[in-house]
Amino acid sequence: YAYEWLQCNSKSSRDTHFKEHSVRWSKLLHLPYMNPIRFAVVDPMHCLFLG
After folding, report:
1. Which domain of life does the UniProt lineage start with (predicted)?
2. Torsion of the alpha carbons at 29, 30, 35 and 40, rounded to the nearest 10
3. Of 12, 14, 16, 18, which one has the fewest beta carbons inside 10 Å?
4. pTM listed for this prediction
């Protein structure tokens, strides 16, 4: 969805896209070793205790 956000032409379309998907474009996504899903830290309290 980040690439779709980048393709939006106006600020209002980007805002709408962000409200729907909660994702924005970042220059870090150009890095070949950057994988936001893989590098996300899981919070044990919210993941294990609260479900």
Report:
1. Eukaryota
2. -40
3. 12
4. 0.61
> CB count, 10 Å around CB of 48?
9
Q: Which residue has the higher pLDDT, 33 or 19?
A: 19
- Going by C-alpha positions, the residue among 36, 35, 1 that lies closest to residue 21 is 1
Burial of 39 (C-beta count, 10 Å sphere; 0-12/13-18/19+): exposed
Q: What is the phi/psi pair of residue 20, to 5°?
A: -80, -40
What six digits make up the tokens of 6?
């980048």
Question: 3-state secondary structure string, 17-39?
Answer: HHHHHCCCCCHHHHCCCCCCCCC
